[in-house]
């Protein structure tokens, strides 16, 4: 079995956060879950996470299939891996990764696994050449280019410090050799820690070859230790996500101002205009036009629909519908096909049937609106009496005139017609007209008379 041990016990002091580092998100997904998902994509069968600081918080974001182990004290990377001993069998291939390197790609891992298998190594380490190796463990090779050992920055002499090939912190172990080497790792070094890289020399001494695969780029290995690095990771990941969508046939006009979470789906021939945030598992259909300046969170948008300068949260919109500009679809808004939700219209907890329209300036809350209903300008669904919320029902083909108030609970039957400016408190039968306002009174010459009276005073 291929198993991955993800090291995530550290606190991440430099984040200055009350949450452990690895639960901080990059493009909407916790760093530790980026690492886990990439491992799974690269064919890892089982994940074992080593947790310490903020264990409950980390556990709460992990999938149920992830095994967790508690490392009470962080005594070093070898000590951390040792905690997972009971999950490791001799015949396993064991990948070790860090929970704070969210940018590692499955493709790179795949090549790395292949290199490990082909070389039949006891352990293989993934490496990169970098301009500034400061802080990383250095890869020491012999005259044949074979891996000899890894020396930590703090233990390195002057010559070793000059080496520009670094340890990514990602390893592939033969299970038997991992188990047999870990027990010999000591902590007699500058940091007084049990170093996982020390297993390399031990495995060599046990007669196995060890490999170093120079197969990664630094931006992929980047560890996130601060908010600054978090924003760098976000930028890199954001571009990667945008490129993936463009490859799949989505047009993105401005990749700099387009923020798409890792778990968002978008159909081909959809156009994303500048200034959009698509987050939390949002699903956008094909041939849509989204934006500019639109936020869509945890929502579903059907094929051919346009959403302009609007905000959608936990909402659903059907096909060939127009939303916006400046519409606000709140949770449980379920808008049908061929609808219009126009400017300054707010919808909440409402089913809005196919072909219905609310073109301007309305509040539609806690309602069931049928098909081909017209909601005039400025209509308010009065759903709240200060204590409780009530439901309004407006059936197919009803016409709600401009500036009407529907005081819930109320039912408007099919084909009913509500005169403009009405405040509707009673149900309206099929096909009836309801007028609920005072008749107009006209008093001829009233203004002149008033002026005369005022002048006398
Ligand atoms: C480690 C490597 C270094 C490599 C670098 C790459 C060692 C000794 N050094 O250094 O060669 O270049 O990664 O980023 O391994 N952790 C635990 N429990 C522990 C110790 C660490 O879970 O007891 C976790 C940390 O939370 C972190 C990861 O392991 O996510 C790496 O540990 P850290 O101490 O930061 O190692 P580096 O000094 O970065
Ligand atoms: Ca360290």
TrEMBL record:
Any one GO MF annotation of this record: glucosamine-1-phosphate N-acetyltransferase activity
Record region (N-acetyltransferase): 249-457
Nucleotidyl transferase domain span: 3-213
Highest rank taxon of the organism: Bacteria
InterPro entries xrefs: Bifunctional_GlmU (IPR005882), GlmU-like (IPR050065), GlmU_C_LbH (IPR038009), Hexapep (IPR001451), Hexapep_transf_CS (IPR018357), NTP_transferase_dom (IPR005835), Nucleotide-diphossugar_trans (IPR029044), Trimer_LpxA-like_sf (IPR011004)
Keywords: Acyltransferase, Cell shape, Cell wall biogenesis/degradation, Cytoplasm, Magnesium, Metal-binding, Multifunctional enzyme, Nucleotidyltransferase, Peptidoglycan synthesis, Repeat, Transferase
Reactions it catalyzes: alpha-D-glucosamine 1-phosphate + acetyl-CoA = N-acetyl-alpha-D-glucosamine 1-phosphate + CoA + H(+); N-acetyl-alpha-D-glucosamine 1-phosphate + UTP + H(+) = UDP-N-acetyl-alpha-D-glucosamine + diphosphate
Region of interest called Pyrophosphorylase, as start-end residue ranges on this chain: 1-227
Region annotation Linker: where it falls in the sequence: 228-248
Enzyme Commission number, as recorded: 2.7.7.23, 2.3.1.157
SUPFAM superfamilies: Nucleotide-diphospho-sugar transferases, Trimeric LpxA-like enzymes
Entry binding sites for Mg(2+): 100, 225
Family: In the C-terminal section; belongs to the transferase hexapeptide repeat family.
Function: Catalyzes the last two sequential reactions in the de novo biosynthetic pathway for UDP-N-acetylglucosamine (UDP-GlcNAc). The C-terminal domain catalyzes the transfer of acetyl group from acetyl coenzyme A to glucosamine-1-phosphate (GlcN-1-P) to produce N-acetylglucosamine-1-phosphate (GlcNAc-1-P), which is converted into UDP-GlcNAc by the transfer of uridine 5-monophosphate (from uridine 5-triphosphate), a reaction catalyzed by the N-terminal domain.
Protein name from the UniProt record: Bifunctional protein GlmU
Record organism: Peptostreptococcus equinus
């Amino acid at each position: 079995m291929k198993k991955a041990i993800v090291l995530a016990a550290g606190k991440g002091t430099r984040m200055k956060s009350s949450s452990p580092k690895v639960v901080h998100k990059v493009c909407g997904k916790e760093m530790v879950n980026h690492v886990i998902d990439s491992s799974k994509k690269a064919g890892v069968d089982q994940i074992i996470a080593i947790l310490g600081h903020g264990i409950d918080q980390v556990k709460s974001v992990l999938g149920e299939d992830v095994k967790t182990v508690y490392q009470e004290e962080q005594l070093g990377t070898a000590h951390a891996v040792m905690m997972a001993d009971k999950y490791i069998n001799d015949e396993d291939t064991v990948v070790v990764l860090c929970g704070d390197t969210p940018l590692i790609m499955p493709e790179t891992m795949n090549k790395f696994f292949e290199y490990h298998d082909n070389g039949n190594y006891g352990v293989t380490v993934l490496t990169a050449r970098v301009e500034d190796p400061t802080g990383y463990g250095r890869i020491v090779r012999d005259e044949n280019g074979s891996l000899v050992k890894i020396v930590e920055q703090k233990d390195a002499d002057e010559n070793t410090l000059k080496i520009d090939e670094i340890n990514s912190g990602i390893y592939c172990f033969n299970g038997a050799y991992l188990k047999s080497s870990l027990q010999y790792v000591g902590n007699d070094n500058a940091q007084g820690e049990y170093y996982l890289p020390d297993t390399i020399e031990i495995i060599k001494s046990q007669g196995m070859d060890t490999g170093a695969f120079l197969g990664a780029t630094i931006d992929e290995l980047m560890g996130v230790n601060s908010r600054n690095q978090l924003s760098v990771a976000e930028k890199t990941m954001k571009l990667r996500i945008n490129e993936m969508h463009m490859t799949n046939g989505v047009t993105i006009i401005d990749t700099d101002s387009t923020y798409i979470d890792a778990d968002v789906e978008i159909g081909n021939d959809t156009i994303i205009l500048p200034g959009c945030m698509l987050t939390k598992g949002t699903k956008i259909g094909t041939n849509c036009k989204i934006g500019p300046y639109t936020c869509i969170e945890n929502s579903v948008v059907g094929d051919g629909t346009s959403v302009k300068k609007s905000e959608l949260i936990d909402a659903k919109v059907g096909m060939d519908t127009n939303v916006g500009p400046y519409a606000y679809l709140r949770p449980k808004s379920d808008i049908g096909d061929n609808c219009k939700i126009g400017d300054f219209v707010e919808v909440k907890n409402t089913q809005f049937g196919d072909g219905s329209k609310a073109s301007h300036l309305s509040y539609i809350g806690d309602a069931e609106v049928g098909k081909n209903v017209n909601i005039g300008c400025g209509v308010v669904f009065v759903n709240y009496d200060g204590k409780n919320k009530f439901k309004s029902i407006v059936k197919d083909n009803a016409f709600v005139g401009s500036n009407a108030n529907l005081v819930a609970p109320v039912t408007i039957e099919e084909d009913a017609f509500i005169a403009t400016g009405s405040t509707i408190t009673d149900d309206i039968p099929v096909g009836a007209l309801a007028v609920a306002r005072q008749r107009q009174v006209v008093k001829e010459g009233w203004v002149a008379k008033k002026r005369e009276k005022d002048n006398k005073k």
